Amino acid sequence: MKTIFQYSFKFILLVASMVSAYAHFGSRGPLGGSVNCMTVFDSTVYIGTVSGGVYESTNSKLVAWRARPVGLKSGKITAIVHTGKYLFAGTADSGVFRFTGFVGVDRYWEKKNSGLGSTQIIALISVDSVTLLASTVGGGLFKTVNKGESWIAVSNPTLQNFDISSMVKAGNRIVVGTQGGGIYVSDDTAKTWKNFNDNGSQNSNVALLSYNEKTDELIVTNEVGMFLVGNAGQGSTAVYTLAENGLPNGIKVISISNNQDNWYIATNMGLFTSSASALNWVSIGTVNLENLTAIVPFRTNLVLGTKDLGIYKTTLASASPTTTWTSVSTGFNNQKAYAVATSGQFIIAAATEKGVFISKDLASSYVKSNNGLEDSLNVTDLLFLGSNLYASTANAGIFFSADTGRTWNRINTGLANKNIQRLFRTNNQLVAFDNLGNVLATSTSTINWASRNSGLPIGVQPRALTFVNDTVILGTFGTGVFVNVNGLETGWSAANAGLDNLEVTSLTSFGPFVFAGTAGNGVFRAKAWRVSQDGWQATAPLGISHTNLMGLNGSHIQAMATNGGYVFASHKGGLLATSDHGNTWIAGGNQFNLPSYADIYRIDFTTNTTGRVFVTTPNNSIYSNALSELPALPTGLFNSSENNASNGIKMSPNPNSGSFCLKIEGRPEKIEIVNTLGEIVKELPSLSEQNVEMDIKGMFFIRANTKNGLQIQKLIVE
Q1: What is the reported pLDDT for 78?
Q2: Is residue 594 part of a domain?
Q3: Per mean pLDDT, which range of 259-263, 494-498, 526-530, 641-645 is the poorest?
Q4: Distance (Å, rounded) from C-alpha 192 to C-alpha 158?
Q5: Torsion over CA of 28, 30, 32 and 33, rounded to 10 degrees?
Q6: Are 159 and 213 contained in the same domain?
Q7: What is the mean pLDDT of the chain?
Q8: Where does residue 21 fall: left (phi above 0), alpha (psi -120 to 50 degrees), or beta otherwise?
Q9: Is pLDDT of 258 > 60?
Q10: How remote is the C-alpha of 89 from its chain's centroid?
Q11: Are residues 320 and 349 in the same domain?
């Protein structure tokens, strides 16, 4: 039996034990999310979410869920059905999708909307393996006989005045519930329809339907209550009887299902079951009365979907008033995520719709960390400076935590506007953007926020900031790039020569270059200390084979970051990387399982030896992947003519255990050791030759300002 349920939920995830052959991006955020609809086929449970796409579990014990978001143009799943051969999903705003696309061993959704009069899908039902019906908002009922390749309107005067809210297969009969017309049935595959009401149901607004094949009975809910009708698969007339024996007064049914022997309902007053042979409802426990969305039997289990609280299960054998429900949300995560920040090897901070969560075990588990953090549900950005964590909010300004999120304190001195959108850093200052276009800065030692808008045009929209030594580069949306050459102590000057798109969304810097991501023209680069003099050059076009296949726009850059000798750039549904200053771009790890409909506005990295990249997706929490998939860095990155590293910086030995001899040509004026995030970990005397001791391990870069210009060389401490 295939059953469809509708009511709200979210989405996303992947568990390492469930991936095949190659590593893939998977959810690494706080668990939780909202279920909208569920269906069971054979050994798999499929879940559709409010805004997070589709999940599946192929394990009979439901120990883990896997996200299936690739190819979907929307994560708003309103209906999901398996025809026995194909899986289909209906969405609230993008039509119907079939899960039949393949790229190697990976699968993706294909859009199948040809002929649909509306892309707002209410319900789906399979008639046979290739025949389906789809009800739509404002467009009526549609039918396909070729597995979704084309749809035709079901034109019938009987149904034309009604919106169809629910559908179910009853033997060979199709049953539809309408708004304002009650129940109608078709015995000829939707060619003709007849009224299947009695006087009480004639003009009702039907909400839910569930058919029991064993008893040939149909349960219907409408604005009056819940009713049972017999002989539903073949009868010519219908008699509806109230089916609420044993239920509390005023109950509202949210979801109905059955396994032929028993009925199951989720309501606003808890969960109930009844034998199909004699209706008498008994409680089967509660999880949270305000959060129940869908219930479905699966083998020896009952599976319960909720709003915000994820997925639960119990065994069918234990269905009684004392039933205990167990959370089974591993791999299921579709909370809204606003920001992510990492510190060191294992610490992850995540800002979600439920507040800030901290993980100290590389995102294996999270602890909610909002003590003292006012407006914790509206955190807009997170930033680690060493072990100190900063958070900006939409209504309460900026907060600081010295104990990794256990306690928070306001740092709003000088801050007139408390709606802060982004946080950045320079060599010695903390920088914030508010929603009015103000660039604000303060020393981290003595908090006193002050405007740094001198030289910027009125109405400026700052989006990004990066720095190289004392040169600070600001990216704005609509007015391009501005440079401040004295660490924010002087005014800004425009530096847009060669920049074909002034809608700058993101900035990052690495080596001698600064990189600017734009909304439509990809990434540009410029020499960091000569942006104003030399101008910008376009890098190579950005695109990944499977995101190109999905029609995703690789030229609309959403975020940029630097790590491990690579510059990263994101666009909707994809993450790319370059190790040769943008001359070529490659996939930043296997891209499958990044939602094709999801924006990626934040990128960060851990510095442990394996290394992971973390990205936020607004409705699908945080995704992560190992950086080991990226190829070894070409030596040309560090020996290029632009930075003269091969001739200018010598280290012996390299790699080393923390002790080495450093020689620099060209009269060094400033020597720093920076990590892969560009953070200074050690400042060295300006000597041409010296012995250096390092007490931390990892990959670093020697960065030296000399009379020959900026020089960089890679350092490995094992």
Answers
A1: 97
A2: no
A3: 641-645
A4: 8
A5: -70
A6: yes
A7: 89
A8: left
A9: yes
A10: 18
A11: no
Q: Residue 693 class from Cβ within 10 Å (0-12 exposed, 13-18 middle, 19+ buried)?
A: exposed
Distance of CA 417 to the CA centre of its chain: 29
Please report which confidence band the pLDDT of residue 678 belongs to, taking 50, 70 and 90 as the band edges.
Answer: low
Q: Work out the number of other CB atoms within 10 angstroms of the CB of residue 701.
A: 22
Tell me which of 159 and 348 has the higher pLDDT: 348
**How many distinct structural domains can be found in the chain?**
3
Best mean pLDDT range from 30-34, 198-202, 277-281, 541-545: 277-281
**Close Cβ partners of 42 (under 8 Å, ≥ 6 residues apart):** none
Same domain, 202 and 252: yes
pLDDT for position 19: 30
Q: CB-hemisphere CA count at 13 Å for 234?
A: 4
pLDDT at position 457 over 90 = yes
Percent of the chain residues topping a pLDDT of 90: 64
Distance CA 245, CA 331 (A): 38
Q: Is the pLDDT of residue 4 over 70?
A: no
Residue 88 tokens read as 């289909």
The pLDDT of residue 562 is above 70: yes
Which pLDDT band holds residue 333 (cuts at 50, 70, 90)? Answer: confident
Last residue of a domain, one of 403, 437, 471: 437
234, pLDDT greater than 50? yes
Whether residue 24 is predicted with pLDDT greater than 90 in this model: the reply is no
Average pLDDT over residues 177-189: 94
State the SS3 of 370-416: CCCCCCHHHEEEEEEECCEEEEEECCCCEEEECCCCCCCEECCCCCC
Q: Could you tell me if residue 121 is inside a domain?
A: yes
Do 341 and 318 share a structural domain?
no
Length of the chain: 718
Tokens (6 digits) for 1: 């039996």
Residue 610: other Cβ atoms inside 10 A:
10
User: Does the residue 41 lie in any domain?
Assistant: yes
d(CA 658, CA 616): 35
Report yes or no on 488 lying in a domain.
no
Q: Looking at the structure, do residues 247 and 355 belong to the same domain, yes or no?
A: no
Say whether both 210 and 124 belong to one domain: yes
CA 588, 593, 599, 604 dihedral sign is negative
Are 319 and 384 found together in one domain? no
Q: How far apart, in Å, are the Cα atoms of 472 and each of 452, 468, 517, 530, 532?
A: 12, 7, 16, 12, 12
List alpha helices for 24-63, DSSP H.
none
Whichever domain contains 49, its CATH number is: 2.130.10.10
pLDDT reported for residue 632: 57
Range of the domain at 655: 635-717
Note the pLDDT tens digit of each residue in 209-226.
Answer: 999 999 999 999 999 999
Q: ω into residue 248 within 30 of 0, thus cis?
A: no
Q: At 689, which CATH number?
A: 2.60.40.3080
Residue that finishes a domain, picked among 404, 437, 470 = 437
Verify that 242 and 261 share a domain, yes or no: yes
Q: How far apart are CA 314 and CA 329, in angstroms?
A: 13
H-assigned helices in 441-579: 531-534, 545-549
